[in-house]
Amino acid sequence: MNLNIETLNKLTEQHYKLLLEADPNEKLISKYLNRSFCFEATYNNELLGVLILLPTHPETLEVVNIAVISTQRNKGIGHQLLTFAEKYARNNNYKCLEIGTGTTSFGQLYLYQKCDFRVVGVDQNFFTIHYDKEITENGLVLRDMIRLRKVLK
């Protein structure tokens, strides 16, 4: 499937619902959204995914939100979004791409490592500190965030 990935100019309710699927903390989303580069992935004018990139250091861009609609998961869309993120980072002179995910997010961890991201650290208790409600994923309570990085050569 050849996606059309473009700058997200107007955030709709559908976009926001997707953002919340990847990050259920509205306060965190509002903190990073206005400081980020936002993109949408469409196919035949249908929204399939969103990608939010936040500059965190002079040469580092972080994927702070990446989401694909549930009916289209495991079809390569997340991989295409990450490939786009890498190309965008390179074209804008970033040297590093980072991403964080939950220790219980097995599918995401697989995808990120498949895309050559390497584990660089763990933010212990990130989700218990920053999220009001307990998050359960894959039958486990989510507590820690795994940080991954891809150095762009």
TrEMBL record:
Signal peptide: none
Protein name: GNAT family N-acetyltransferase
Gene3D superfamilies documented for this protein: 3.40.630.30
InterPro entries, A to Z: Acyl_CoA_acyltransferase, GNAT_dom
Pfam families: Acetyltransf_1 (PF00583)
Domain N-acetyltransferase: 3-138
